[in-house]
TrEMBL record, chains A, B, C, D:
Start-end of Gly residues biased regions: 110-119
Compositional bias ranges of the Low complexity kind: 124-140
Keywords noted in UniProt: DNA-binding
Protein name: Single-stranded DNA-binding protein
Superkingdom per UniProt: Bacteria
Subunit-level organization: Homotetramer.
Disordered, as annotated region: 103-151
Amino acid sequence: MASVNKVILIGNLGKDPEVRHLEGGVAVARFPIATSESYKDKSGNKQEKTEWHNIVVWRGLAEVAEKYLKKGQSVFIEGKIRTSQYQDKEGNQRYSTEIVADNMTMLGGRSDGSTGGGNYQETASSSSSAGGNYGGNASATQNDEPDDLPF
Amino acid sequence: MASVNKVILIGNLGKDPEVRHLEGGVAVARFPIATSESYKDKSGNKQEKTEWHNIVVWRGLAEVAEKYLKKGQSVFIEGKIRTSQYQDKEGNQRYSTEIVADNMTMLGGRSDGSTGGGNYQETASSSSSAGGNYGGNASATQNDEPDDLPF
Amino acid sequence: MASVNKVILIGNLGKDPEVRHLEGGVAVARFPIATSESYKDKSGNKQEKTEWHNIVVWRGLAEVAEKYLKKGQSVFIEGKIRTSQYQDKEGNQRYSTEIVADNMTMLGGRSDGSTGGGNYQETASSSSSAGGNYGGNASATQNDEPDDLPF
Amino acid sequence: MASVNKVILIGNLGKDPEVRHLEGGVAVARFPIATSESYKDKSGNKQEKTEWHNIVVWRGLAEVAEKYLKKGQSVFIEGKIRTSQYQDKEGNQRYSTEIVADNMTMLGGRSDGSTGGGNYQETASSSSSAGGNYGGNASATQNDEPDDLPF
DNA sequence: TTTT
DNA sequence: TTTT
């Protein structure tokens, strides 16, 4: 193997997280975050370019996202890139790229007075999934998903 | 701003790099790399999942890729995520995600006896672009692209 | 070669930066930042452990640090580990480890109402050093120090 | 909190790992790795500077290190910086900085024909510690040490 | 003390 | 010496 797939992002939520609670109590949250960089164009004018990233978090992290993350807030995200294939309605192969996060730290909001803070990781102990024993299956294992989810 | 967009990958090239030399002598290389992770499925059987990443490198790094990188080789890549929008032939909005690398280190090949090695970064000094003085425009500025490229 | 030395930190400044302006107009700033992690001890009580990191920044980044960073503020730091050897007064070999930063992003302060923000990188263009043309010598080259500094 | 302490290294082992098996079956391995960077000095001559990092791995990763890592080999290390304080024999406060790894990937050796490969993470499942149930205590929790070790 |  |  000898492979590494790691992403580190700091950006602001473009929307409130959308959370789904699957059978078995497993939670999944999705939200977009924006990163932006500024550069000078050929004429020397300052330009800004925004990149949008689709974040997915599972279990305990999803519950944290549901409770604490809001549109506009700044978060630190550590995770991996995952590209899914699907067929569109015309039957063409399409690709969708997401960041599956296994570590998330709130960095405070826009202007809402929240002081931010709080680091959360994808571990069994932070999961409240009923009856779940994800044990060594924690953050680090990169196997933190049920095998047959409907997407 | 306060944003960060960073990707770190170690994986193997799925194909030889495709290199284009643009007007002005600027080179661009593209190649896919695979990362894989193994996990146990519900039955306890070991499974492997491969993720493919489309890498883009510019200038000096593209020239290094052209000369030294071959299908099967292992590379360390540091860069950022960039998602481009385009319209498909039906006029639908599509997205394509790439990793724009600004640091690349060869880690040796499959079994070809090459010992690998060599770290390369997106700096002016590693660029042989004719007449180019990219100065502070180096790796770090994240502004390492011409403004109007045909893709 | 084939080597990588990369550090990513988010933490709070323990003190205001100490800035020195060397001959030639080159600036160096140093400041400590704290990272902390919480864990449960054997009795199940929540404990917190703080780690201190000595940050060093050069040139433009040092000037940014001097102007904008204050004790208590939160920063994102990207850099490399550097351990220096020196002899103490008894003539014993000692080691001192620092983080030489080449990318720095302010993440906002404690409670002072500052909204933070602002990404800065070690590039020629962000340096105001008189007469300096650090060109390709930017962030990425990891050669961003004069050769014979008095420490 | 809102803090992050992350290190990513690729380097070569300067020595074989030294492994200790503590009471309770917990293993700890230590080994130095070298990273090097090349730069041009003022006279334009190529210089190389080597940085040494002291790596510490626990439990399953220590056992992997004991079995598979040898002097000269190349490894990818992901972990965190930890600086310990101690008093030298003269009673002076001293500091020692180590990298506590929670992810380790062998990248192959010098010239010994080993093909390398293999990613290992600090999870319960990769640990063979007798009777251990490190469960959610895995890699990600950053609490992967017994509370009162003799160093 | 590694590696190129 | 920070922050929560």
